[in-house]
């Protein structure tokens, strides 16, 4: 799966089936979510509980697909050299609403343990910049996540 993802990023214009493209995009988005989770080098219990829920709602996944995607995303995230590897594909295929929902999910993960680490904040801000979101959109998504903190997901 990692080799396919690298091939996809190396040649995004390659002829992929719609199913393959969708899988690559899910992996890229999940990898970005894991970037936030692992920014402080640990996955808290709250983050571990919230991640599968966010993957099912943000990426419209079946709950059965989440475990495999998280495993693949961990490998992808660990072998990545930059956020650009993931955001390039998302920019080419996600609309503005999908990008905002991804950033919202990232903020929700960052606040899941009740503490926003500076590295989580930096990753989310950099991702939003690479996704060409306005600063006001970034702040709006952060505020929504802060309001949702403490509420069931």
Automatic annotation (TrEMBL):
This is TerB family tellurite resistance protein. It holds the Pfam family TerB. InterPro entries: DjlA_N, TerB-like. It comes from Shewanella schlegeliana. Gene3D superfamilies: TerB-like. SUPFAM superfamilies: TerB-like. CDD domains: terB_like_2 (cd07313). It comes from the Bacteria. Residues 27-143 form the Co-chaperone DjlA N-terminal domain.
């Amino acid at each position: 799966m990692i080799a396919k993802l690298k091939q996809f990023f190396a040649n995004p214009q390659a002829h992929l089936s719609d199913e393959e493209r969708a899988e690559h995009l899910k992996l890229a988005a999940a990898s970005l979510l894991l970037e936030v989770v692992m920014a402080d080098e640990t996955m808290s219990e709250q983050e571990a509980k919230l991640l599968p829920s966010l993957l099912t709602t943000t990426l419209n996944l079946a709950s059965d697909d989440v475990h495999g995607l998280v495993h693949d995303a961990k490998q992808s995230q660990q072998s990545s050299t930059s956020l650009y590897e993931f955001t390039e594909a998302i920019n080419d295929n996600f609309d503005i609403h999908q990008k905002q929902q991804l950033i919202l999910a990232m903020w929700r993960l960052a606040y899941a343990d009740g503490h926003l680490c500076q590295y989580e904040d930096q990753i989310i801000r950099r991702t939003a910049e690479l996704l060409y979101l306005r600063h006001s959109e970034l702040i709006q998504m952060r505020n929504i996540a802060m309001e949702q903190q403490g509420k069931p997901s």
